[in-house]
């Protein structure tokens, strides 16, 4: 049986604040919203993919503030370094701190949403590398310099090979 990823649902404290971040900064669109029929709970559905009704949904009524203690982070693939750099610029514009990490097989930025849920946005590198690996990378490097740095940094690691091998 093969499973494919569809969506995640988060309990949130402030639906409107989360919507502002996920739509305004991350580029999601609200696809539906409505009452759940119990208490004053509402669910809001968001997606970036026209083939997916929702990739993320919010339900108001989160019980505890602070960072999530059961999920480390949700990860989203983005198409290429230009798009990843664009996301980093959008986070900078909002004053959201992020942590750039390369796993050898990806270039990633890690950050928290307004309710401290961990998020990773990444694009693939041209290589495969055995995991776990996580090394800070410099977003100021040009694409060529970043590719060169990544290859130099990871080429002696187990499993290093071109991704298309």
Condensed summary:
With about 160 residues, the protein is of the alpha+beta class.
Would you write up a description of this structure?
The chain is of the alpha+beta class and 165 residues long. Helix content is 22%, strand content 31%. The protein contains 3 helices and 11 strands. Strands 5-8-7-6-10 form a 5-stranded mixed β-sheet, covered by helices on one side. It is elongated and about 55 Å long. The model has no long low-confidence stretch (mean pLDDT 92).
- Unreliably modeled segments: none
Q: What is the mean predicted local confidence, pLDDT?
A: 92
Tell me the strand percentage band.
25-35%
Radius of gyration (CA) equals: 18 Å
Strand order of the largest sheet: 5-8-7-6-10
Helical proportion, percent range: 10-25%
Order of helices and strands: EHEEEEHEEEEEHE
Q: Which secondary-structure class do the elements indicate?
A: alpha+beta
**SS elements, strand count:** 11
Global outline: elongated
N/C terminus separation: 27 Å
The helix tally amounts to: 3
Largest β sheet strand count, sense and barrel closure: 5 strands, mixed
Supply database-style keywords.
single chain, alpha+beta, 5-stranded mixed β-sheet, 4-stranded mixed β-sheet
Helix and strand arrangement:
Blueprint: E1 8-12, H1 15-24, E2 29-35, E3 42-47, E4 56-60, E5 74-77, H2 80-94, E6 99-102, E7 106-112, E8 118-124, E9 127-128, E10 135-136, H3 143-154, E11 161-162
Parallel strand pairs: 1-4, 5-8
Antiparallel strand pairs: 2-3, 3-4, 6-7, 6-10, 7-8, 9-11
